[in-house]
Structures are given as C-alpha cells and as structure tokens.
Amino acid sequence: MKPMKPTAESLQHLACYVFHCSHQLGDNMWLFTALLLWADPTKAVITLQPPWVSVFQDENVTLWCEGPRLPENSSTQWFLNGTTIQILTPRYRIAATSVNDGGEYRCQTGLSVPSDPIQLEIHRDWLLLQVSNRVFIEGEPLALRCHGWKNKRVYNILFYQDGKAFKFSPWNSEFTIRKTNVSHNGIYHCSGLGLHRYTSAGVPITVKELFPAPVLKVSSSLPILEGNLVNLSCETKLLLQRPGLQLYFSFYVDRKILMSRNTSSEYQILTAKREDSGLYQCEATTEDGNVIKHSPELELQVLGLQSPTSVWFHVLFHLAMGVIFLVDTVFYVIIHKELQRKKKWNLEISLDSGHEKAVSSYL
Ligand SMILES: *[C@@H]1O[C@H](CO)[C@@H](O)[C@H](O)[C@H]1NC(C)=O
Ligand SMILES: *[C@@H]1O[C@H](CO)[C@@H](O)[C@H](O)[C@H]1NC(C)=O
Ligand SMILES: *[C@@H]1O[C@H](CO)[C@@H](O)[C@H](O)[C@H]1NC(C)=O
Ligand SMILES: *[C@@H]1O[C@H](CO)[C@@H](O)[C@H](O)[C@H]1NC(C)=O
Ligand SMILES: *[C@@H]1O[C@H](CO)[C@@H](O)[C@H](O)[C@H]1NC(C)=O
C-alpha cells in the first residue's frame, strides 16, 4: 500500500499512451513538470489535454486525475461545482463541450485528498485567449494561445498585458512565459488578423510571490574588528507554504562565492581578517532554481590594529617614544649647557695666550 507520488513522466506517458502523441514528450514536458513542481504527494492533481482552462464550445477536452490509489482499486471521484458526477475513471473526456460543462472541477483518488480546483470555461467568440492556468506561483510557466473560432487561423498576432502589447508573432498563435514573477500580474488579451482584426476578451492572471527578496543581516557590533566572529544571515520568509518546499542560500563577497546552495541561511566568518572586507550579498533560490532572488549588497569593513593586543602595542610604542623624547631632551639640555660653559672657558683661554698647551690638550 505504498502511495504513489505522481511524477511528470507517469502523467506524460499516461497522456501519450492514450493520445499516441510523440511530439509532446519534448515540447510540453516542462509544463507537466511545472504543474507538479511542489505537488503534495497526498493531493490529487488534475491535468488538462489540451492544457487550456478555457475552450470554445464544441471542442473536446480531457481531464486526467492523478493521485495515490489502492493497488486493486483505480476508482476516481469527480466533482463539478461541488457535486459528484457519474464518472469513476481517472480519465474524464468531454466530447464537444457545451456551456453546462463549464465550472469548477475537482477529483479524488482512493488514498488522496481532493485536488485543487480547475475552473473550466466554455466560450463563444471570434477569438479566445487560452491560458494554461489563471493563478500561478512565481517561477511557474504561463502558456498563452490566441485561438480562432472553429480553429480558423489568425495572423499578425499581438499579445497584451494590461492593454500594452508585449509580443508580436506573424504566424505562431502560442507564446510561453517560462518563469512567471509578480510583474506578470495583470489582465491579458490578444488580437489577430483573420477576415478582420479580432480582439479577445481579457483574462485576469495572478502570480503569487513565493518569498520576497532576501536581506543580508550582520549580527556583530559594528565596526567589525580583526579577529572577531561575524554571523551573516540571509533573511526572507516563505509567503506560501508548500509541502517539501525548501529554500537554498548562497553567500558572495565581491561577486565571488563563499557558500553555495546550502539549506542554512547563515554564514559565519570565524575570525575576521582585514582581507574579509568587501561587498557582501546573498541569494535565496528554490530547489529547481526557477525562483532566484538576491539581497542588496552590504559593505563590510574589518578594521585592523584595533584589537586589544594592537592597542597595547600602540600604548607601549607611544610610551617608549615619549621616554626616548624625554631622555633626548634632558641630554640635549645638559650637552647644550656644557657646551656653553666650555665656549666661555675657551674664550677665556684664548685671551690668555700663555696657556696654549692647556687649550690643545682640552680639545
Ligand atoms: C472531437 O473529437 C471527435 C472524435 O471523438 C472528433 O471527430 C472531432 O473532430 C473533435 N472535435 C474537435 C473540435 O477537435
Ligand atoms: C457550474 O457553475 C458554473 C458557474 O460557476 C455554471 O456556468 C455551470 O453551468 C455549472 N455547471 C453545473 C453542471 O452546474
Ligand atoms: C474503490 O474505492 C472507492 C472509493 O474511492 C469505493 O467507493 C469503492 O467501493 C471501492 N471499490 C472496490 C471494489 O473496493
Ligand atoms: C553567531 O552564531 C552562533 C551560532 O549560530 C552563536 O552561538 C553566536 O552567539 C553568534 N554570535 C553573534 C555575535 O551573534
Ligand atoms: C551547510 O552549512 C553548514 C553550516 O553552516 C555546514 O555544516 C554544512 O557542511 C553546509 N553544507 C554544505 C552542503 O555545504
């Protein structure tokens, strides 16, 4: 009775087994991976084939439910708008959708808790902006498709965010933002040229922040003196709790790495040296590296010759210099006085010419 964790591969192969698709193994792999990125292994997951949460009326949609089950029981429960529907298979195919197929879908397998809901919308319009989801956690990919009614081709496609065009494509009606961040919040729409220029309705997209950019903090009284222990910590906090979500921290000085991808948000300089001075920065990332955030730089200066031993050295040095100066001064005064005295004496001798012998003996 080992609960099976759904893997990207198992879902992909399940989908491809039924649809005999081969191209998807490469192209859409990351989409599947992203959907299961921080998946709770006890929670069922719904995936869509094709992957859009809004479709035109009369189009076909298949929903897949993946989650831990009892080995002998593949029974799956499906819920639409909160009530169970009479489908018991992991695959729920809706052929030729009608307005009544729209709503909030959830599923549950034998050993799982109910999945997060998927809001399926059924539309009638000339042009529809299809999205892979409407709510994301930063780092997840957002796929967009500007889709014409009855699969009519449109050209010169423009994608807009909050009324501003951000992508033009002459032919390709699909565009993917590989790693979303909070700047991707907004209302999206698209326009394309068929017989006329058509414009889709707007789709609100929400990207939730996983954690804010970290701040590098130093817990040591400043200034840092040579020989001190310095604790650096890379502070941020998870805004969304996801099972198994783990942040990794790196520390840099002058853009050179000090500690790489550690689960500990702390870094210690055991005995600071003057060479440890520099611009410090830290980085927090998710395990897959899809979300990477840097702290602002922090300048640290380690001061030398200020430690207790060097202070004593300074005191003794100045004391010694003082003593030498004092002794010098005393000597100078003595010598000076002596010379003055001798000069006077010499003068007296030279005046007395009879004592030349005595002067030369003195000199
Ligand atoms: C939906 O699937 C049916 C086969 O079940 C197919 O005949 C039809 O063309 C499909 N419709 C669309 C819009 O792809
Ligand atoms: C489910 O709710 C949506 C509105 O959220 C509605 O359009 C749809 O008809 C409902 N479907 C059923 C089967 O009740
Ligand atoms: C399979 O599990 C479902 C609940 O998920 C239960 O209602 C059903 O009776 C089970 N069937 C068998 C054969 O055990
Ligand atoms: C630095 O961290 C260690 C262990 O994390 C702690 O024991 C020590 O008191 C800290 N020192 C300072 C100066 O914060
Ligand atoms: C992570 O940091 C801790 C203490 O800061 C250290 O003991 C450990 O070896 C580090 N792990 C790696 C993988 O660097």
UniProtKB/TrEMBL annotation:
<keyword id="KW-0391">Immunity</keyword>
<feature type="domain" description="Ig-like">
    <location>
        <begin position="41"/>
        <end position="108"/>
    </location>
</feature>
<keyword id="KW-1003">Cell membrane</keyword>
<keyword id="KW-0393">Immunoglobulin domain</keyword>
<dbReference type="InterPro" id="IPR050488">
    <property type="entry name" value="Ig_Fc_receptor"/>
</dbReference>
<dbReference type="GO" id="GO:0019770">
    <property type="term" value="F:IgG receptor activity"/>
</dbReference>
<feature type="domain" description="Ig-like">
    <location>
        <begin position="212"/>
        <end position="299"/>
    </location>
</feature>
<keyword id="KW-0325">Glycoprotein</keyword>
<keyword id="KW-0732">Signal</keyword>
<dbReference type="InterPro" id="IPR013783">
    <property type="entry name" value="Ig-like_fold"/>
</dbReference>
<dbReference type="GO" id="GO:0019864">
    <property type="term" value="F:IgG binding"/>
</dbReference>
<keyword id="KW-0390">IgG-binding protein</keyword>
<dbReference type="GO" id="GO:0050766">
    <property type="term" value="P:positive regulation of phagocytosis"/>
</dbReference>
<dbReference type="InterPro" id="IPR013151">
    <property type="entry name" value="Immunoglobulin_dom"/>
</dbReference>
<dbReference type="InterPro" id="IPR007110">
    <property type="entry name" value="Ig-like_dom"/>
</dbReference>
<keyword id="KW-0399">Innate immunity</keyword>
<dbReference type="InterPro" id="IPR036179">
    <property type="entry name" value="Ig-like_dom_sf"/>
</dbReference>
<dbReference type="GO" id="GO:0045087">
    <property type="term" value="P:innate immune response"/>
</dbReference>
<dbReference type="Pfam" id="PF13895">
    <property type="entry name" value="Ig_2"/>
</dbReference>
<dbReference type="Pfam" id="PF00047">
    <property type="entry name" value="ig"/>
</dbReference>
<dbReference type="GO" id="GO:0001788">
    <property type="term" value="P:antibody-dependent cellular cytotoxicity"/>
</dbReference>
<keyword id="KW-0677">Repeat</keyword>
<dbReference type="InterPro" id="IPR003599">
    <property type="entry name" value="Ig_sub"/>
</dbReference>
<feature type="transmembrane region" description="Helical">
    <location>
        <begin position="311"/>
        <end position="335"/>
    </location>
</feature>
<keyword id="KW-0812">Transmembrane</keyword>
<dbReference type="InterPro" id="IPR003598">
    <property type="entry name" value="Ig_sub2"/>
</dbReference>
<keyword id="KW-1133">Transmembrane helix</keyword>
<protein>
    <recommendedName>
        <fullName>High affinity immunoglobulin gamma Fc receptor I</fullName>
    </recommendedName>
</protein>
<dbReference type="GO" id="GO:0006911">
    <property type="term" value="P:phagocytosis, engulfment"/>
</dbReference>
<dbReference type="GO" id="GO:0009897">
    <property type="term" value="C:external side of plasma membrane"/>
</dbReference>
<keyword id="KW-1015">Disulfide bond</keyword>
<dbReference type="GO" id="GO:0032760">
    <property type="term" value="P:positive regulation of tumor necrosis factor production"/>
</dbReference>
<keyword id="KW-0597">Phosphoprotein</keyword>
<keyword id="KW-0472">Membrane</keyword>
<comment type="similarity">
    <text>Belongs to the immunoglobulin superfamily. FCGR1 family.</text>
</comment>
